[in-house]
Each structure stands twice: as C-alpha cells, then as structure tokens.
Amino acid sequence: MTDKVTGSAYLQGLSLQCNEQYITVGFRFGKNTGVPSAPIDVTVRVDSNEAFVVSTKNFSNSHNSSFMLHDDEQTELIGQLKKGDKLIFKGMNKRTGSPSELHSAGLKGFTKAYTKLAIHCGLNN
C-alpha cells in the first residue's frame, strides 16, 4: 500500500490542492460570501473568453474561501487558466444581493505552479 501525497499551491486568490487522484481549484475571496459550508455560484472569466458559472462550496471553516464542486467545470477552467493572463471571478454580494467582483488575479506562474503540484502529487496534468 502506498501513501497518497498531498500538497497545495497558492497564487493571487487561487488555491490548488491535490488529494489522492485530482487537483482541486479553490477561490479565496476578498469579501464575506456567506456562511461556512454554503454553496456559492461563481462567474469566472479568463481574459476575453466567455464567462461561465461554476459551482463552489465554502470550506467548513470559512466565510470567504470555497472549492469547486464539479470536475467538468474544473477541467474547463484549468485549461483556460493555463493559457490565460488574467482571471476575474464574481459572485453575489451578501450585503446588496447583487453580483459583484469578488477577486481578480494575474495568472503569471499558474501553469508552472500547477505542473509542479501535479508532479509532486504523482498526477498526470
């Protein structure tokens, strides 16, 4: 039996974590987005690509950090992140009840961080 290697990388509002067989993308918001463990739909756009909605869920101990729930959305986003220069993600502002920008991030170094994490964790990227 072999131990599973885990690891993480952080890049301007994004977190990457590997656990067992996959890498999970997480978002760190600059604003309170709700209660811990709450589901949050986040609109993401990389560069001038069409924006799309991803389903996330706040970590159990956090009001402003969440992880993606669906593999197909994550695969699409990772593909765009590897090619992109800038990510913007938006969600519902808890105070106003209207969509607002939660964070934007430059993507310089994303592919390198993702590849290193995948190698460290023994995953195909």
Concise description?
By secondary structure, this protein is an alpha+beta fold. The chain contains two helices and eight strands, in the order ββββββαββα. The protein has an eight-stranded antiparallel β-sheet, with helices on one face.
Largest sheet data: 8 strands, antiparallel
Broad CATH class: Mainly Beta
Distance between the termini: 23 Å
Task: Please tally the helical runs, counting DSSP H or I stretches of 4 or more residues.
Answer: 2
Low-confidence region ranges: 1-5
Notes on the protein architecture:
The chain has 125 residues and is of the alpha+beta class. It has a single domain, classed as Immunoglobulin-like. The protein is built from two helices and eight strands. An eight-stranded antiparallel sheet has the order 1-2-3-6-5-4-7-8, covered by helices on one side. The chain is globular and about 40 Å long.
Q: Can you tag this structure with a few keywords?
A:
single chain; 125 residues; alpha+beta; Immunoglobulin-like; eight-stranded antiparallel sheet; 2 helices; 8 strands; disordered N terminus
Write the layout of secondary structure elements.
Layout: E1 7-11, E2 14-19, E3 22-28, E4 39-46, E5 52-58, E6 65-68, H1 71-83, E7 86-92, E8 99-106, H2 110-120
Antiparallel strand pairs: 1-2, 2-3, 3-6, 4-5, 4-7, 5-6, 7-8
